[in-house]
Amino acid sequence: MNNHWKGIPELPNSIGEERIIRVSENLSLRVFIWKPVKKSSKTPILMVPGWGSVFEGWRPLVSEWVQRRKIIYIETREKASAIFDNKMKPKDFVMSKYIEDIETIIGKLQSENELDDDFHLFSSSLASTIIIHGLQEGNISGKSTIFLAPNQKFRFPFWAKILIKLPLPKFTLKWLIRIAIWAVERKVEEEGQKIRYRRTLLSQNYERMRYSARYLMGYSLPESLSNIDIPCAILTAESDKLHGTLDVEFISREISNIEIIPIPSNQYAHQPEALNEIESFYSDIELNE
To answer: Is the pTM of this model over 0.90?
Structure first.
């Protein structure tokens, strides 16, 4: 498990740095910063991957992307790389804490001149939900943003809700994860996506994932997202059975300045080919400034 949570991956034609940034009295988060060896005038990307996501799932896309733009990659608090100084509590995983984390990291990087005032956002799954909520509340901002498979709410199967809520001892948590893997593999058709989720689930701090899941079961986005006025896009695939179309419909209806970008599959969004759609969106915004 620890192999995924130590050290910065070396990527081609780029210089990388691993940062551990304190976001509160009790918590520090891991942040990767890559800069292209060949200087680029393009706007940096602040990237926040999804729930429990490990970098290996994003390596194909990011390996190509860092050669074009500066990439700042933030790992959220439910991941095993997060450093809690004291014992975790369920309330550590409420949405407001996630939003504060991103806001704090942005502020610290800007104060160090590591991040310009202008940057694009890119996020997936839970992280997209965090960014959407943060944009609506005014805690997070950016030049534009792309969401991959954002969630309005988190729809766990009934049996999963029961298991997550039960006060089971810690040693049983790894079996819950294996049950989750079995359930995901029944629902997902793409082999690459199965491998990615299996690797992700097996690499977690199981207690954090349970705390996070307990909160997410009752969470939903604000009913109105009318405060979001920056250019937005959603990458969505009809074949993605884990992230529902209802969420995309709600978010696209509530955000006025939004574009829907269809892609072949969720796995495609993790591959370098997806930069065709991603860079087209960001480049259009930069050209129209």
So the answer is: no
